[in-house]
Amino acid sequence: MKFLKTTLVAAAIAVAPTAASAASIMLDFFSSSQLSEARDAKSAFDHSVSTASEDFEGFAVGTSTLNGLDTGIGTITTVAGNNPGASAIGITSESIVRDSTAFGRYNTTFSGEKWLDSNDNADVILDIGDTGDANRLSLFITDVDDVGAIAFEILSTNGVMDFVFNGTQKLANGNLILAMFDFGASLASEYTITLSIDAGDGFGIDDVNATVVPLPAGGLLLLTAIGGLAVFRRRKA
Ligand SMILES: [Ca+2]
Ligand SMILES: [Ca+2]
Ligand SMILES: [Ca+2]
Ligand SMILES: [Ca+2]
Questions:
Q1: What structural domains does the chain harbor?
Q2: Which pTM was predicted?
Q3: Which tens digits make up the pLDDT trace of 219-231?
């Protein structure tokens, strides 16, 4: 069976006049049967000391983001969509902790069971709080853009860097995305990551990790323009 694995890299430059830091967002796409391989890829990216994490295992099933969910990586809130699909439960302006596979969304934690369901809403916002000296963050996202419009975006900002990813093809039910943020420098303050999709196309998130990876010797890469690079390759699943 052919499986398309796509890696997209976008790089932007900080606007500070005396120093530049390269930051990037990378997405690796897997099928639901490749969770073990995806975990290995995540571990390789995380590389080093975890400063903050959230795997949702400590929350009761049904816990919601209605009033902001205080998690190990910061507060998570949800923006409602105006056309929730059949898989939404309860008050649809909430994302909800679930413990079993639902419509292609599932836990990714080894020996775990719980994950946060977008509950068919439009935006799930991770306000990354106390991450110590972290310079990387990764998370798993499940079941993106398998129904409706192709509309998934990741927007992250700390005021000087923005990244947007737009999917270009409908994905399979149960697909698994490893999202990897390399900030190029320590996160000195809060950082917001918004996962945005067409309402009615639910997704799950799990295993959010902020980690410290040593910066390469010789300083930071200096870039002169915002650039993008997309690499597509096919391989046997
Ligand atoms: Ca979990
Ligand atoms: Ca699905
Ligand atoms: Ca969609
Ligand atoms: Ca979906």
A1: 2-13+20-227 (2.60.120.260)
A2: 0.81
A3: 444 443 333 343 3
